[in-house]
Amino acid sequence: MDNSSGVGVLDKAALVLSALESGPATLAGLVAATGLARPTAHRLAVALEHHRMVARDMQGRFILGPRLAELAAAAGEDRLLATAGPVLTHLRDVTGESAQLYRRQGDMRICVAAAERLSGLRDTVPVGSTLTMKAGSSAQILMAWEEPERLHRGLQGARFTATALSGVRRRGWAQSIGEREPGVASVSAPVRGPSNRVVAAVSVSGPIERLTRHPGRMHAQAVIDAASRLSEALRRSS
């Protein structure tokens, strides 16, 4: 079968990625595996590294990059959303607060599913809303387990600190009190894909008057349980 698409540079990039599927490779290893000229193999690997589709290991060898895992997670989003509805509804009913599911999209986070509180004061985040990655408990969750370089960049201008994110990793949940929006508190926990990578954040949010200035004490366990149910569903469907 002819593997040529007619777009030469893409075909060569695909050769590089396929070669790395079997494990780390030096530049010489890439040349041997792909049959590409050394300068071409180097140029493509470095370009793919720029787009995070290729990375380097501790020995400086080329490996598959984190962007591929992110794309794979996005491809699995339909499985996540199929499970999210009943889990968020249960979380809302248990806590009495609005529940949301967020995914990272570039430098923003997007609400991909929600279950609204049925009455009274609500913190409504419509599905499809894009919110900042610089504030809020779900932003903390989506940032806390990032690779160091991306974490460092993301902290610039953020309302939370590296120390706060260290606490999030230790506890396994995050809270915010008026961080994204005055008067609103929230609690979030990570949803993990089959490779244990954080692919989404589950949150409950509402007025500080109800959630208090220690919302994690009230709702952390319920949010963690919801996140665990979604993580388990992703593992089962992989």
Structure overview:
This protein is 49% helix and 20% strand. The chain is an alpha+beta fold. A 6-stranded antiparallel sheet has the order 5-4-3-8-7-6. The chain has a two-stranded antiparallel sheet with strand order 1-2.
Measured by DSSP, the beta-strand proportion falls in 15-25%
Mean of all residue-level pLDDT scores: 90
Spans of 5+ residues with little confidence (pLDDT < 50)?
A: none
Total count of strands: 8
What is the percent of helical residues?
A: 40-55%
Which short descriptors sum up this protein?
two-stranded antiparallel ribbon, alpha+beta, 6-stranded antiparallel beta sheet, 49% helix, 238 residues, elongated
Summarize it:
Residues 7-66 form the HTH iclR-type domain. By secondary structure, this protein is α+β, with helices and mostly antiparallel strands.
Tell me the layout of helices and strands.
Layout: H1 8-20, H2 27-34, H3 38-50, E1 54-56, E2 62-64, H4 66-75, H5 77-95, E3 98-105, E4 108-115, E5 130-132, H6 137-144, H7 148-155, H8 162-171, E6 174-177, E7 184-192, E8 198-207, H9 208-211, H10 215-237
Antiparallel strand pairs: 1-2, 3-4, 3-8, 4-5, 6-7, 7-8
Helix pairs in contact: 1-3, 5-10, 6-8
